[in-house]
Amino acid sequence: MSSSDVNTTDTQPTVHTSGGLLRGATANAAGQALNVFKGIPYAAPPVGALRWRAPQAAAPWSGVRDALEFGPDLPQVPNPRLRAASQSEDCLYLNVWAPAGAAPASLPVMVWVHGGGFERGSGSDLASDGAAMAAQGVVVVNFNYRAGLFGFLAHPSLSKESAHGVSGNYGLLDQIAAFHWVRDNIAAFGGDPQRVTAFGVSAGSASIALLLASPMGKGLFQQAILHSPGAARPLATLAEAEQAALALGDDIATLRALSAEELLSKTSLLSPKVRGLTTPRVLRPIRDGWLLPEDERPVLKTGRIHAMPLIVGSNADEGSLLTKTWPADNLAQHTSLVQTNFGDAADEAMRIYPATADSEARPRVGEMFADTQFNYGTRLLADAMAKKEPRTWRYLFLRRRPNQTDGPHHGEEVSHVFGTYADAAPGESADHDSVDERVSGAMMNAWVAF
Q1: Which neighbouring-strand residues pair with 197?
Q2: pLDDT means per 10 residues in the chain (450 residues)?
Q3: Using H for helix, E for strand and C for coil, what is the string for the chain?
Q4: Which among 296, 318, 412, 413 is annotated as catalytic?
Q5: Which neighbouring-strand residues pair with 109?
Q6: What is the pLDDT of residues 10-45, one digit of tens each?
Q7: For the chain, which residues make up each domain, given as ranges?
Q8: 228 in active site
Q9: Around Cβ 325, how many Cβ atoms within 10 Å?
């Protein structure tokens, strides 16, 4: 790869990468000129024979490749906040926002890993547009990775194909490939590959936390900021995930021949195994004995994580992520949810999250969800890192938008961190005032200064 910096002698910037020459676009944010490159392939399209395989190197190209539009989103339920023009399994693309005129390898790098419950999400999300943050003097990168059936299917036939005897966790392997691309290429955009901060929300930050506990995560980044990571959840074993996958059939060739749309429609066959508060889940990262040799909880409790500066936190009303969709309007529903999710520990859970009136059911279920899915893991991760690295901080996001009577909900801090709090998707509104501007400025400055 050429070590030359971005060429801005033309109206459109160009940059040399390991794959070839890219042509980007110019932009301006807060008075800072930016170079923006979108839809950069960091791995080969995971289609056909490459479906359910580890990411392979992207083919180089000749001439100049336009990097002007977001690459396709992973097939998923449509979301007006996702700005890619299409959906496709051919989704392994990343985006870069960089201050114009930066010398090679001179600026810190912020790499965002999107959330979406390991089922959906995209680097094209309006909330995580990198322009405003890049204007603060950093290079911002985000990327797509495989999720759901495309990214986390473990199957006996797939494990037999693998040199390591494992399957699943393809989405995590995509993330590792994206960080490798950053290591090998970001200097040409002005970023220092030795000053990389990994940050993300929900499934994205949970992924980063897993990489902190994985032997294969060592050296991918130098520090981390985790928004609501939900760390330390029990992981399904490879055997459990393989057994569940047999509901789709035992012929992997037949499954590979399905269209993306046909495959997506089969997610419901595994839905009873997908969700659960305290039970291991499939179509998620699994304990495969290779990438993830063991559960995260014992790794954290014994301090066997990669030491680095860390910020980790959550929002005041994480529990509403569940209570907005789960029935929790009365005592009977409260009891049913506790029994379903805690099993033999239901009596203890009822003592910890008691409800004596219908009006208390939803708040108690929300607290239960927030603690089991986010708060406990956040504390455990922070405590484990603090024993190895004194530069460890926790945060709690409290800002409610004007006219917002509850919250802040899961993920609502993201637009403040990226300075996109005033941006709205078609058909939506972005309620905000001067307080949001100040909160956004403070968070963005803190994240960039970290």
Answers
A1: 110, 223
A2: 46 95 97 98 98 98 98 95 96 98 96 96 97 98 98 98 97 99 98 98 97 97 96 89 95 96 90 60 94 93 95 93 78 88 87 92 88 90 96 96 88 96 83 94 97
A3: CCCCCCECCCCCCEEEECCEEEECEEEEECCEEEEEEEEEECCCCCCHHHCCCCCCCCCCCCCEEECCCCCCECCCCCCCCECCCCECCCCCEEEEEEECCCCCCCEEEEEEECCCCCCCCCCCEHHHCCHHHHCCCCEEEEECCCCHHHHHCCCHHHHHHCCCCCCCCHHHHHHHHHHHHHHHHHHHHCEEEEEEEEEEECHHHHHHHHHHCCHHHCCCCCEEEEECCCCCCCCCEHHHHHHHHHHHCCCHHHHHHCCHHHHHHHHHHHHHHHCCCCCCCCCCCCECCCCCCCCHHHHHHCCCCCCCCEEEEEECECCHHHHCCCCCCCHHHHHHHHHHHHHHHHHHHHHHCCCCCHHHHHHHHHHHHHHHHHHHHHHHHHHHHHCCCCCEEEEEECCCCCCCCCCCECCCCHHHHHCCCCCCCCCCCCCCCHHHHHHHHHHHHHHHHC
A4: 318
A5: 139, 196
A6: 579 999 999 999 999 999 999 999 999 999 999 999
A7: 14-325+372-449
A8: no
A9: 8
Q: How many residues does the chain have?
A: 450
- Tell me the two tokens of residue 359: 């009006």
CB neighbours of 298 closer than 8 A, spacing ≥ 6?
A: none
Residue 431 is predicted with a pLDDT of 87
Phi, psi (degrees; rounded to nearest 5) at 384: -65, -45
CB atoms within 10 A of CB 220: 22
| Nearest of 99, 83, 88, 76 to residue 13 by alpha carbon | 99
Contact 154, 238 (CB under 8 A): yes
- How far apart are the C-alpha atoms of 24 and 66, rounded to whole Å? 6
* Class in CATH terms, 14-325+372-449: alpha beta
Q: What is the pLDDT of residue 273?
A: 54
**pLDDT score of 9:** 43
Is residue 89 annotated as a catalytic residue, yes or no? no
Given 114, 155, 410, 416, which residue is catalytic? 410
> Is there a catalytic annotation at residue 306?
no
Q: pTM to 2 decimals?
A: 0.94
For position 274, what pLDDT does the model report? 47
Residue 23: the pLDDT is 98
Residue among 159, 202, 214, 415 flagged as catalytic = 202
